[in-house]
């Protein structure tokens, strides 16, 4: 989950060492600079996206059983109202097997997908992919 893809105009972010201060991304300059408006002061400033993390809401972790195996699943919403875009990260605790019984991914593999639909439907889901723990947002990684 490369953070640069989560930093876009209108996205709520926080500074990595700013005491939890949050801001809204207003515009982009030459990469990697963006203009943000800080929630607590209303002031705009320019910052490097390397120091900004997206804010996620309602981050939950639960153990789930799929027909293909068991996993710890973390769901994080982009909006505070639990609707629309969200990310789902699964850390497999059993080998992921296809319909033929062949192992697709060994246990311990972390997969990531972004779901853009409003409901629980996965019709607008990006393809599932394997990620390393270092790629994950720190608030999500700590729950795995």
Describe what you observe in this structure.
The chain has one helix spanning 138-141; strands at 12-15, 22-28, 33-38, 44-48, 52-54, 57-66, 69-77, 86-92, 96-97, 103-105, 110-115, 129-131. The protein is mainly β and 144 residues long. The two termini are 14 Å apart.
Précis, in short:
With 144 residues, the chain is mainly β. It has one helix spanning 138-141, and strands at residues 12-15, 22-28, 33-38, 44-48, 52-54, 57-66, 69-77, 86-92, 96-97, 103-105, 110-115, 129-131.
Strand order of the largest sheet: 4-3-2-1-5
Sheet-strand content, in percent, reads: over 45%
What is the distance, rounded to the nearest whole angstrom, between the alpha carbons of the first and last residues? 14 Å
| Number of strand elements | 12
Largest sheet: 5 strands, antiparallel
Based on CA inertia axes, which overall geometry fits?
A: elongated
Q: What string gives the helices and strands in order? A: EEEEEEEEEEEEH
Instruction: Give helix % range.
Output: under 10%
- Average residue-wise pLDDT: 82
Count of helical segments?
Answer: 1
Low-confidence stretches: none
Instruction: Please state the structural category.
Output: mainly beta
Radius of gyration: 17 Å
Describe how the helices and strands are arranged.
Layout: E1 12-15, E2 22-28, E3 33-38, E4 44-48, E5 52-54, E6 57-66, E7 69-77, E8 86-92, E9 96-97, E10 103-105, E11 110-115, E12 129-131, H1 138-141
Antiparallel strand pairs: 1-2, 1-5, 2-3, 3-4, 6-7, 7-8, 8-11, 9-10, 11-12
Q: What descriptive keywords fit this protein?
A:
144 residues; 12 strands; single chain; mainly beta; 5-stranded antiparallel β-sheet; 1 helix
């Amino acid at each position: 989950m490369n953070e640069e893809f989560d930093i876009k105009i209108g996205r709520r972010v926080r500074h990595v060492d700013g005491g939890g201060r949050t801001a809204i991304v207003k515009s982009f300059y030459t990469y990697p600079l963006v203009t943000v408006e800080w929630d607590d002061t209303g002031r705009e400033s320019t910052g490097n996206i390397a120091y900004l993390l997206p804010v996620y809401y309602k981050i939950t972790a639960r153990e789930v059983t799929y027909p293909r195996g068991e996993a710890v699943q973390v769901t994080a919403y982009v909006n505070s109202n639990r609707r629309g875009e969200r990310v789902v990260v699964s850390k497999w605790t059993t080998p992921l097997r296809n319909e033929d019984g062949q192992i697709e991914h060994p246990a311990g593999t972390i997969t990531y997908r972004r779901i853009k639909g409003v409901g629980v439907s996965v019709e607008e889901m990006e393809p599932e992919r394997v990620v390393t723990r270092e790629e994950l947002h720190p608030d999500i990684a700590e729950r795995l």
